[in-house]
Amino acid sequence: MHTTNTQDGTRFIGAREAEALTSISRYTLWRMEREGKFPKSVKLGSKRAWIESEVRAWMAEKIASR
């Protein structure tokens, strides 16, 4: 999936980019999402993507809580 931007600047990222950004495997990201430990993805047609700002906020939260 390619990165998609909306008119308001929201940026959707696919599994590969989320994996690269977090250094967590796609499988683990999906598992964590199901468990409520990672932001929920958004359905975009037949694919799903995460909102980049939510993933970055999740990362910042992890850094702050260490």
Would you kindly provide a written description of the structure presented here, covering whatever features stand out?
It is a single chain. The chain is globular, with a radius of gyration of 12 Å. It has one domain (about 5-65). The protein is an alpha+beta fold. The mean pLDDT is about 90. The termini are far apart. Strand 3 (about 40-45) and strand 4 form a beta hairpin. The chain is built from three helices and four strands; from the N terminus they run E-E-H-H-E-E-H. The protein has helices spanning about 15-20, 25-35, 50-65, and strands at about 5, 10-15, 40-45, 45-50.
List the helices and strands and how they pair.
Blueprint lengths: L3 E2 L5 E3 L1 H8 L3 H9 L7 E3 L2 E5 H13 L2
Antiparallel strand pairs: 1-2, 2-4, 3-4
Query: What string gives the helices and strands in order?
Result: EEHHEEH
**Structural class estimated from helices and strands:** alpha+beta
What is the overall silhouette?
A: globular
Largest sheet descriptor:
4 strands, antiparallel
State the domain count.
Answer: 1
Question: What low-confidence regions span 5 or more consecutive residues with pLDDT below 50?
Answer: none
